[in-house]
Amino acid sequence: MTRQAGCELCELAMPVAWRGEKFAVIVVDDAAYPGFCRVIWREHVREMSDLAAADRLLLNDAVYELELAVREVMAPLKVNVASLGNVVPHLHWHVIPRYADDAHFPAPVWAAASRQTDEAVLAVRRALLPALADAIVRRFEQFQ
Amino acid sequence: MTRQAGCELCELAMPVAWRGEKFAVIVVDDAAYPGFCRVIWREHVREMSDLAAADRLLLNDAVYELELAVREVMAPLKVNVASLGNVVPHLHWHVIPRYADDAHFPAPVWAAASRQTDEAVLAVRRALLPALADAIVRRFEQFQ
């Protein structure tokens, strides 16, 4: 497996919701965005278009299954999906549940925040995270 | 075809680089980001996971081909790919060539700008746009 020394996504030294040979899924610990998840490709690859065709389809499928898990459990108003990697150029996808009352809506989560979401609302969403972890494990069994 | 009255992406009243039955490709007229492109799904669909499987694969392929066209012509340092749709919840993908000297690098283009790119540099990138349009037409012939 191609690894790059010092790359935090190569090291994958973080709690994962699911870990396979080719990719892992994490639930990001983001205070403002409960249910924010990532799919992290295990090899140090820079762009989607650097992947072999079968791997690209596999990663697209993984992002799709993660979107389904997030929709099923978090019931967001919208899902945002992005592969950026400017800071850490190791292929990973953000899958972010968005709500009308979230910190940036309707702007992207990387814009300036426009509000602070009510703490009680965030607590309700945070309470869904065990169910989200279960849904991820269930949906990703197919990739073993 | 499912359309929603008043949706600007249903209307698709803009110059397109390529237009097919299922999706269109546009080169966005963004002063700070020459080569910024979008794939716009023609039907009014909200999320990737609302698409039928064959359509989802088709749209993933379209984003992939657009990424290749952007890399080939614009030679960016990194490509950013995102499906957000919070403002216009009609499925579309951003494909954005990023450079170390662009207005936001390494932050996402939706963050606060950190610099203004030299106008001469932008002019050189803008001069590539006809070649980008050609590359899109050539690469998207397969989808006719």
TrEMBL record, chains A, B:
Source taxon at top rank: Bacteria
Record motif Histidine triad motif, residues: 90-94
Pfam families with a match to the protein in the record: HIT
Domain HIT: 5-105
Entries under InterPro entries matching the protein: HIT-like, HIT-like_sf
Protein's name according to its UniProt entry: HIT family protein
Organism for this UniProt entry: Massilia phyllostachyos
